[in-house]
Amino acid sequence: MRKAAALAAAAVVAAAAAIAVRQRLREAKRWARVAAVLSDLQERCAAPAARLLQVSDAMDVEMRAGLASEDGSKLKMLVTYVDSLPSGDEKGLFYALDLGGTNFRVLRVQLGGKEQRVIKQESVGELFDFIAAALAKFVASEGEDYHLPEGTLRQLGFTFSFPVKQTSISSGTLIKWTKGFAIEEMVGKDIVAELNEAIKRQGLVMKVSTLVNDTVGTLAAGRYVDDDTMIAVILGTGTNAAYTENAHAIPKWHAPLPMSGDMVINMEWGNFKSAHLPLTEFDQALDAESLNPGEQNYEKLTSGMYMGEIVRRILLQMAQEAALFGDNIPPKLETPYILKTFHMLVMHHDVSPDLETVGIKLKEIFQIESTSRKTRKLVVDVCEVISTRGARLAAAGIHGILKKLGRATDSPDKRRTVIAVDGGVYKYYTFFSECMERTLSDMLGEDLAPSVVIKPANDGSGLGAALLAASYSQYLQADEDY
Ligand code: BGC
């Protein structure tokens, strides 16, 4: 009897051991699959030095093609009619309206010339629909520190961060929306005329005097504080760059040459495309299912609107193929755009030994109750692959512009070049910005790298628009031109 009981007990132990072994095997298989997906991803997202140089060359080539003719390239290379940048001498009261991807700002600045610079600046945030109403309220709240002679028309610098084909410094039509905006009836319309009408309806004595892209505003704000600022880059919800070009080098420019000989070009580099860009099936699927398939390819690799979404797609595949988050797929993981790049950077920056923040975020965003450290580490690894690729490609883009400007190869005079950079990804995703700066410096080499300076622009696009409104100011009497 005792023997039978012992035998039965042994059988139970053996069965339990077999289950444990099977479970361990299953676990090992699962992780082997996850590791395979990760290493495959790392391989296909890799942007080694040689490839970055190809991307930089392609950027240079496309820039030239875009400058040569209207539809010569995926890069629009839009002429901005900004042929002089602020000098610091600007004086007076100017308003600005800054409509971007995430932010909407209205501001006014009192400029005091070289000595005093920006004497005072204020801003408010409102919604697009209430632009004119917000402006009216804002103007009504003008305090004593802002001075404008009675009856003077208020001038407004307008930063509109979308591709606009400009017809002058203060007019232009919307080519297309980006960053998920989709008010179709606005496409092809003169943005400034629309806004001026809305302002008039509010009874405001105010007029848009300059229309600029956020990169152009950022370039203006950068130049205002540093004469060597030649390039501006936005790495935020969307991405783009602007730089000063020699007007002689713009074959498609047929109007009289500007006095300064220079013209700011809004590259719209988000639409850059090249066979050298390291793309995966995740990027292809994201593009195909986006609001603008086939467009903004470079933006879809490097900007805040998309990087988090790429990470989500990868995690979803790992969950489907290797039960990364257990036997059931967490339903929220299937929701497009639920993972913001801001969440991604918070997880990526988690330095706690246990990756606690990653666990909290996974719970908050995807309602994944509990995760092992190994799983959390894997999530961080995926964030790292995608942000490294984006940052390295952004560096290659900047290198391409330097190349176009003849500043990517060492020369005896070693001219200093400042690049003003702004946008949430650049500002808050320090892993990304550090990686980008390191990559650019590696690409330039140790002799040249010290003469290329990247400077944070600190929300300069609105201020830049006000500065440009000032540089192009005519201070009309309200009844003369209104
Ligand atoms: C827009 C650009 C803008 C950039 C950064 C892109 O999606 O097309 O005009 O400069 O985002 O805001």
List keywords for this structure.
13 strands, alpha/beta, 6-stranded mixed beta sheet, disordered C terminus, 5-stranded mixed beta sheet, Nucleotidyltransferase, domain 5, 482 residues, binds beta-D-glucopyranose, elongated, single chain
Number of H- or I-type helical stretches = 16
Low-confidence stretches: 123-129, 475-482
Task: State the total count of DSSP E strands.
Answer: 13
Structural class: alpha/beta
CATH fold annotation of the domain at 70-234 and 459-471? Nucleotidyltransferase, domain 5
Instruction: Average the pLDDT over all residues and give the rounded result.
Output: 90
Shape: elongated
Corresponding CATH superfamily of the domain at 70-234 and 459-471:
ATPase, nucleotide binding domain
Q: Which strand order does the major sheet show? A: 1-11-10-9-12-13
CATH architecture of the domain at 70-234 and 459-471: 2-Layer Sandwich
Rg over C-alpha atoms, rounded to the nearest angstrom? 27 Å
Order of H and E elements:
HHEEEHEHEEEHEHEEEHHHHHHEHHEHH
Share of residues in helices = 40-55%
Bound molecules: beta-D-glucopyranose
User: What distance lies between the first and last C-alpha atoms, to the nearest angstrom?
Assistant: 109 Å
Largest sheet composition: 6 strands, mixed
